[in-house]
Amino acid sequence: MDGFCSLPSLPAEAADVEAALRPDIARSYDQYIASGLYDSRYPKPNRRVLRQALQMLPAGGTFLDFGAGTGRYTLPLLALSGATGVAYDICRAACSTLTSRARDYVAAGRLKIVDGPIGAIHHTADPPFDLALLAFGVLGHIAGRRERLSVLRAVREMLHPDGRILLGLPNARRRFLAEQIAARPLIRDGELEPGDILYHRVSDEERIELFYHLYTAAEARRDLAEAGFRVDRIGPESILPESDAVGRRSTGILDDVLSGLVPTWLAYGLLVAARPAGSENR
Length: 282
What we know:
This protein is of the alpha/beta class. It is 40% helix and 23% strand. The strands form 2 sheets. Strands 3-2-1-4-5-9-8 form a 7-stranded mixed beta sheet, sandwiched between helices. The radius of gyration is 18 Å and the shape is globular. The model is unreliable at 1-20 (pLDDT under 50).
């Protein structure tokens, strides 16, 4: 699965079918957040991701938490550093919750919260940033390789020349194996792109339809290079499922240790650190 060729553009009629098939991720996440299910599954940051993000933030630096949700990385990044930040999400329920939780940081001028299209970041905030964080599969929820590359390029343009990007990507070799099998006919018929899957979560008898694009390490390197980044390293984001890795302190410590010992292909998620191509090492 590590060998991944370039994806052809879909013909117009196939693109229309694909768009109709995929759930509206903003609407789905409004349901997911409003139900309380997301916060109950992922109540805290992943120790490994937070540590690397803090190491990549210079003193007094600036960060963009892209797909910030309800703030499980935004809030500790602010609490544990002297940085200022922008939290961006297309989900209004998430932004509303984060606005309440981060009221003091907003009032102190250390945080701006932005929703809507990606261009709203430029209208509301003040790039460039030292760090862009796209944690726990945020990029994979964007349907269409062309759209994902567009987002990566836009993020690159918002970084300092020596800034960094840190991404958590769902590992195709570990995640949603049954859903990958179910997606094969849709991929064969051009209704989904290779690597795409459809899945759902259930909360209080409400079914929340979701979309994901799963990554191999080779594809992550290819897409980041095409978007103008140079990959520094790819390693495990976690070995245990994310809900286990962040649910309890003991399992979080165990997962952190295991993630430093096992090969990347066994990871539940891939953690990718990169910088704009052409920049010098810090």
